[in-house]
Specification:
- By secondary structure, the protein is an alpha+beta fold.
- It is built from 8 helices and 19 strands.
- The strands form 6 sheets. The chain has a 5-stranded antiparallel sheet. A 4-stranded mixed sheet has the order 1-2-5-3, with helices on one face. A 4-stranded antiparallel sheet has the order 15-18-17-16.
- α1 packs antiparallel against α2.
- The structure holds flavin-adenine dinucleotide (FAD).
- The site of flavin-adenine dinucleotide has 32 residues, from β3, α4, β9, β13 and β15.
């Protein structure tokens, strides 16, 4: 019933059945989503929420899948992927508006071409703008909260709601959207004009730092754990002697202990088991409780 209703609003290429989530996560892990839709506009999102609510179908919002872990059993229900189709960017002289599906790296390059500075930090974060806002993604001393002016999101009763910066409850790797579950559709950015070659140099420098420090040659979801107050997760893990620790095909990266990587064919349960082992050993060694940053999409 709900599947038929959704089929009526999505063209074939934006309606995927039994879609392997391993194709949609940077961990390259996860069983199939029963249905995945890729909305091309806000109206389709509103109609999709309405169909799910009416039929009591659970749904999950996905950006680029760079901060999530999907269970091996897959996802019963619907995945709404906000990416291609919702990636328009308007860059004007006095304001910038971008849709949630644009990749942070693409947006950073568009801003570079328009000589806007302040967004360089986000150029190496492999997520979408929507996922970045949801997580208040940050790197090298800046976070989304420093560049966002307002956000529009769709509520569970299908209304478009505008949030000003002060209402977004941004703090370390979180925003108001974690509690609300609304679907972010677009935002306004506040940035200053800068010198194009300085902006390019900064982006290049950050890219080089990333590839030097991070195991980008392996699938992962970035830092597995949040930064505990007063410590660095990677350092605590290293000090506990866990560099390179393996469970199945999951491994604490040799290059950066804060990353758990997929050596090839790792399952969700292997990643979870290894991260729990790390949490316990680090706690026993240091008394510091690590908290997972990666969100797990669970089976209903
Ligand atoms: C190699 C690597 C390096 C990384 N480096 C960094 C880093 O430096 N800093 C950092 O902060 N993170 C980093 N990350 C983690 C990740 O890229 C960020 O958290 C990113 O912001 C997630 O965006 P996404 O689009 O992939 O979101 P997803 O992983 O798809 O989703 C993450 C969460 O956001 C929600 N979400 C996504 N889109 C929307 C939307 N439109 N509306 C509402 N909710 C939404 C999802 O439901 C989910 O709960 C890294 C990851 C990798 C793999």
């Amino acid at each position: 019933m709900w599947i038929k209703a959704l089929k009526e609003i999505y063209k074939d290429q934006y309606f995927l059945e039994n879609e392997p989530m391993s194709n949609h996560t940077t961990f390259k892990i996860g069983g199939a989503a029963q249905i995945m839709v890729i909305p091309q506009n806000s109206d389709q999102i509103i109609q999709t929420i309405e169909i799910c609510t009416r039929n009591e179908v659970p749904f999950y919002v996905l950006g680029n899948g760079s901060n999530i872990l999907v269970e091996d059993a897959g996802i019963q229900g619907l995945v709404i992927k906000i990416e291609h189709g919702m990636e328009t960017v308007y860059i004007g002289e006095d304001h910038i508006i971008a849709e949630a599906g644009v990749k942070l790296n693409d947006l950073a390059h568009q801003l570079l071409n328009a000589s806007y500075t302040g967004f360089e930090f986000a150029s190496g974060i492999p997520g979408t703008l929507g996922g970045g806002i949801f997580m208040n993604a940050g790197a090298y001393g800046s976070e989304m909260k420093d560049v966002i002016e307002w956000v529009e999101a769709i509520s569970m009763d299908g209304k478009i709601i505008r949030f000003e910066l002060k209402d977004l409850a941004f703090s370390y790797r979180t925003s108001i959207f974690k509690a609300k579950g609304y679907i972010i559709i677009r935002c306004g950015l506040k940035l200053k004009k800068g010198n194009i070659s300085d902006i390019r140099d900064k982006m290049e420098e950050l890219k080089a730092r990333r590839s030097l420090k991070q195991p980008l040659e392996y699938p992962s979801a970035g830092s597995t754990f949040k930064r505990p107050e007063g410590y660095f997760a990677g350092q605590l893990i290293e000090q506990a002697g866990l560099r390179g620790l393996k469970f199945g095909s999951a491994q604490v990266s040799e290059k950066h202990c804060g990353f758990i990587i997929n050596l090839g064919g790792a399952t969700c349960s292997e990643i979870i088991t290894l991260s729990k082992m790390v949490e316990k050993i680090v706690f026993d060694a240091s008394g510091v409780k690590l908290e997972r940053e990666i969100k797990i999409f669970t089976v209903e």
